[in-house]
Amino acid sequence: MEHITETPTLKAPAERFTGDVYLNMISTPVEPARLAAALVRFTPGARTDWHAHALGQVLHVTDGVGLVGTRDGKVVRVSAGETVTCPAAEEHWHGATDTTLMAHLALVVGDAGGDGTTWLEPVTDDRYAAALATVSG
C-alpha cells in the first residue's frame, strides 16, 4: 500500500488546451499497470484540444458544468456526479461552459506505447460557441 497525501497542481500545457486548465495526477502508471488518472479543473471557457485515446477514456465530473463534444457534432452537457465514456479512437474534446468552472476525473488505460492519446488541433472559438448553443435552453 502507498498513501499519497498530496499531489502537485500543474498548469496544463497550452499546446493541448485553450484557456486555464489545471491538473493533479492521481495515478501515473508504472509497468505493468496502465491506468492513468487525473483530476482536471477547467476555468470558464477552457477546454481540451481535439484528441483521441487508443483504448478510450472515462470522464467523471466532480464539480461544475461542462461540455463533451465529438467530431460528428454531438455535444453533451455534463454536471457533477455524471460520467461520460469516450470509445477507443473517438476524436473528442471536453471542457467547462463559458460561465462555470468544471472539474472531472479523467481515466485512461494506456497501450503498450504509453498513454495512447493522440493530440490534434484546438477546438475553434466558433466550434465551441456552436457547442454551447446546442446545449443551451
Largest sheet, strands/sense/barrel? 8 strands, antiparallel
Structural class: mainly beta
Average pLDDT works out at 94
The rounded distance between the terminal residues' Cα atoms is 48 Å
Shape: globular
Percent of sequence in beta strands: over 45%
- Written as H for each helix and E for each strand, in order along the chain, the element string is EEEEEEEEEEEEH
Count every beta strand, where a strand is a DSSP E run of 2 or more residues: 12
Helix percentage = under 10%
Describe the structure.
With about 140 residues, the protein is mainly β. Helices cover about 10% and strands about 45% of the residues. It has one helix and twelve strands. The protein has one helix at about 125-135; strands at about 10, 15-20, 20-25, 35-40, 45-50, 50-55, 55-70, 75-80, 85, 90-95, 100-110, 115-120. The strands form three sheets. Strands 1, 3, 4, 7, 8, 9, 10 and 11 form an eight-stranded antiparallel β-sheet that branches. A two-stranded antiparallel ribbon has the order 2-5. The chain has a two-stranded antiparallel sheet with strand order 6-12. Strand 3 (about 20-25) and strand 4 form a beta hairpin. The longest helix is centred in the C-terminal third of the chain and has 11 residues, at about 125-135.
Task: Write the SSE topology.
Blueprint: E1 10-11, E2 17-18, E3 21-27, E4 35-42, E5 47-48, E6 51-53, E7 57-70, E8 75-79, E9 83-86, E10 92-96, E11 102-109, E12 117-119, H1 125-135
Antiparallel strand pairs: 1-3, 2-5, 3-4, 4-11, 6-12, 7-8, 7-9, 7-10, 7-11
